[in-house]
Design goal:
The chain is built from six helices and no strands. The chain is mainly alpha-helical.
C-alpha cells in the first residue's frame, strides 16, 4: 500500500515548491508603478501617511485592504516605519527643570492640601 501511494505521487525531487505570491494583489512591476508617485511625495515632504496609500490601493484593486497589507507592500520595497522622536517638539527644558524643583516630595490626599 505504501509503494502504491509513493508511486502515485511525484518524488521529492520532482515536487514543485509551494512558495511565492499566489494571492498577490498586484504583480511586482505593478507594485513598483503604484509606489512611484508616493516615492516622489516622500522625497518632497519627507513623510508619508499610511491611510491615503491604503485608500489608493483599495481603489486600484477594487476592494478594501487591511493596513497590514499596505505595511507588507511597503516592506517588500524597502520602505520602513520611522519611529517618532523621543521628545515633544514644543518641549521646554527650562519649564521641565522648574517643575522638577517644585515637585511635591510626598503625596498627600487632596483634602490635606487644601487645609
Amino acid at each position: 500500500m505504501q509503494a502504491r501511494f509513493q508511486t502515485g505521487h511525484p518524488s521529492s525531487s520532482e515536487r514543485c515548491n509551494w512558495g511565492g505570491r499566489r494571492q498577490a494583489l498586484l504583480t511586482p512591476q505593478e507594485e513598483i508603478e503604484f509606489l512611484r508617485p508616493w516615492a516622489e511625495q516622500a522625497r518632497q515632504a519627507g513623510l508619508l501617511v499610511l491611510s491615503p496609500i491604503r485608500v489608493a490601493l483599495a481603489l486600484r484593486v477594487g476592494h478594501p485592504v487591511k493596513a497590514s497589507v499596505v505595511w507588507r507592500l511597503l516592506a517588500r520595497h524597502g520602505w520602513r516605519k520611522v519611529a517618532p522622536d523621543t521628545k515633544h517638539p514644543k518641549n521646554d527644558p527650562k519649564v521641565m527643570k522648574a517643575w522638577k524643583k517644585n515637585f511635591p516630595k510626598c503625596w498627600l490626599p487632596c483634602s490635606a492640601r487644601t487645609s
